[in-house]
Structure formats: structure tokens, C-alpha cells
Amino acid sequence: MISVLVLGQPYWASRIARALDGRADDMRATFVDQGSYLRLLAKPPRSERVVVVRAGYRVGATTPRGRLFDAYWSLLRRALPRAVACHYWLGTDVMDTLAEARAGTLRFAAVAAARDDLHLADAFWLASELEEVDLHASPAHVPRPYRSPETPPPLPVDFRVLTYLPGYQFAFYGGEAVMEAARRLPDVEFDVVGRLGSSARPALTNVAWHGWVTEMTERYARATVLVRIPRHDGLGATVVEGLLHGRHVIYTHEVPFVRTLRPATADALIGALEELRDAHRGGSLSLNLAGRAYALGEYDETRLSDHLAALVRART
Known about the structure:
Layout: E1 2-8, H1 10-20, E2 27-31, H2 37-42, E3 49-55, H3 64-79, E4 84-89, H4 92-103, H5 108-113, E5 118-121, H6 124-130, E6 138-139, E7 160-164, H7 175-184, E8 189-193, E9 207-209, H8 217-221, E10 225-228, H9 237-244, E11 248-251, E12 259-260, H10 266-281, H11 289-298, H12 301-313
Parallel strand pairs: 1-2, 1-3, 3-4, 4-5, 5-6, 7-8, 7-10, 8-9, 10-11, 11-12
Helix pairs in contact: 7-10, 9-11
């Protein structure tokens, strides 16, 4: 029996555990919450084949929390000397690691000690970025269920933009560029989802602020193009769901059938939107069916789970 223990960022760690649990008769996965960390040290699993996964908690961090988790990780490795150690990189953890490496503050010895562990990355560009610190990761998008209509709704009559701008990371997600595009394209309607205080919302008549939206089906149906332009990202869920709805997507990372915007400046965004808007008004813009077909195959939850389980199994 392969026993997989997943620790780290609760949202992602629990998803990873659910994806792996029961993928085969001889594999069981468990999400270990922080309240169970000491209990795990005191009573480690007896299975001969154990994999311990740290999701999103990067090795070698200089923050107090990072150092504390590295210390715990060392104790856990001693308690499970034959276990396979796996590092699951999700996005911000890669960005922060590279920032510390370039600043010379990264604890390189800790990173070097983890070099021979199993490293997985949520997107292929994250795996590529990790090469900078001599870590070799296999791309493995975190399996999750995505919203996908049986038939993609037709593009709306009016050209419309959908974007996600969380209040706590407005600038990081390209909020200024999006708002500048809205100012300079007053004939284009923008729908913004994400929590953002009313005092921080620019007063633009062509921008609708929807706050946190649990059910996004209607928002995708009303959109012509999905814009997601953060400075750095794992593979964003709105990108995948935009493709599954047959929408056109503008993104800061390279994904098949997506328009890559790099650098994500206001001028570049406006140019891309104007091109799509003009095509839409001229009647030549159709559903992004090639993107939908790609997403249906590439981001199928079962396929992703099987791929992840195969990567884990290969190291046990």
C-alpha cells in the first residue's frame, strides 16, 4: 500500500489528497491539517511505501514561518526515513523563491538538500522557472473539477470583457491596466469579479463590479473575452473555464489557444481588445472551439489525477 500524506496550504493540499486517494487499489492519500502535525510525528504511518507532500510551502524560505516549517519537515523526514519527499509548487512559492535567490537571501543549502526529492509544478512555466535554482520539476496541474457546459453558449451580441481582480492584490492582477483599458475603451463593457472595497473602485460607467461570485456560469456566458493578467501565476482556473466556455482568453502566460500578453501593459491590453472587438463587430469572431476542445482533453480531472498518481507511483 502506498500511503500519501499531503501537508501545506490547506485549499491546495486537500485537493491534491482528494485527487490521489483511491486512484489505485494500493494508494491512499490523506490531507494532514496543521492541528495534526505533532500527532503525525508521534505516530507516523506503518506502511512501507510512504510519500510526504508539501504543497505550496517552499523550501529554503527566510520567513519565520518558512523556517519553522522547514524545521518541522526535517523532523518528519527523520520520523519517516524511507519516505519519498515531494514538493508541489503552485505559483507564488516559485515567484518568492526566485526573488530570494536573485536577492541572495534564499537559504540555498536547504534548497540543495531537497534537490533529489520529487518536485511537481502546477504549470510547465513554473517547472521551467525552477531550473534557475537547479530544481527539476515535472509539470502536474492540480486536478480539480472545472465548470464546463455541455454546449458553449454563443458569444454575446455586445462585446464584453470579464476579469478577476481580488482587492488584496489589485495591482498584482493588473488592475491598473484593466481600468486604463476601460477608460480608453468606453464603448466596451467590463465585468469585474472579486472582493474589492467600494472606495477602491474607479467610477467608470462601463465597469460593473460583482464582488465575490460563487456561480460563474452566467458571467462566462455574458463574456466575449476573459482577461487574466497577473504578474505571475500558476494556471488560473478562470483561464481553463474561459476556454471550456468557448471564450477568447488574454493571459500573461503561454497556453495553447490563448492570447499571451507579455508585458501586460495597458497599451498592449487595449490593442488586443481592440482587435477582438473589431473582429466581433465585423462578424468574424466566433466561439473559441479549438480552445474548448483543448481544455476538455488537457484539464479533465480524471486524466490529471491519473497523471499525478503515475508521477508519485514512479518514485515509490
